[in-house]
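Attaching the record inline, Q. Sequence:
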Amino acid sequence: MASTKLWLPRFRFAERPSLSMRMMGVGLVITILFILVALLSPMFQAWGWLQNPTDSLINPIHEPPALSHWFGTTRQGYDVFSRTLFGSQAALQVVILATALSLVIGVPLGLVSGYLGGRLDRILLFLMDTIYTLPGLLLSVTLAFAVGRGVLNAAIALSISYVPQYYRVVRNHTVSVKTELFIEAAQAMGASTWTVLSRYLLLNVIQSVPVLFTLNAADAILTLGGLGFLGLGLPEEVPEWGHDLRQALDALPTGIWWTAFFPGMAMTLMVVGLSLLGEGLNEFVNPLLRRENWNRKAAE
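Structure, as predicted:
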């Protein structure tokens, strides 16, 4: 009976989720909330619950938050509440497309480079290291000048800076996994390079990709906001948080705070949600980190 009393507290404490896992739950809730807002905003507009975010000069100028306009209005007569909600739609479209493009390019290159090695590996590693050393925002600004505005163009401008990250993670895992016995057994049985890469290596080297995807998405939102602030992101008629912050700068010294506060807060919350989700996924996916946390709790 004494041993039961000794082990029960440890068992109950071990069942309690860690702080990072609880934060992952908070991040998941925030992320799902923004996804729902992005999906439902056009429906709310069709029902007459939201104004058209591109309709200007139909509202009073610089009206503070009130029941008629929950987040107030801008100098152009835009409804800040409507533009803030629709801004999540533009952010998710560009960010998901940008991270997906970088994933589709970086993961296959990392697999091939790590598995084949040789001159191809050295050339790709030098190229990716060169891109990785450039500041992400500066590289995105340069590409945005070249490709112009638009959802696809902004996604291309953002994705190029994330390709080296996927490449390096997958390439390093491939180099360590390709010497395992099951890979050598597949090679001895005459499996082709494509079979080894797709059937045996791929699922064993992409455990960290979901974590990197969420963290890159959080960073891409900030970079997109920077492009919009510089006037290089999406077209002016598309509601976007960075562009709205740029338009709000002139009114800030006069005490008109709502035109910058709500788009900036929406951007901050979305970045925090994706960052918390990524950090929690890192512990969930990484078994070594999870085992260290369990051992520390047991010792306590």
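The chain has 13 helices and no strands. The mean pLDDT is 82.

More tomorrow.
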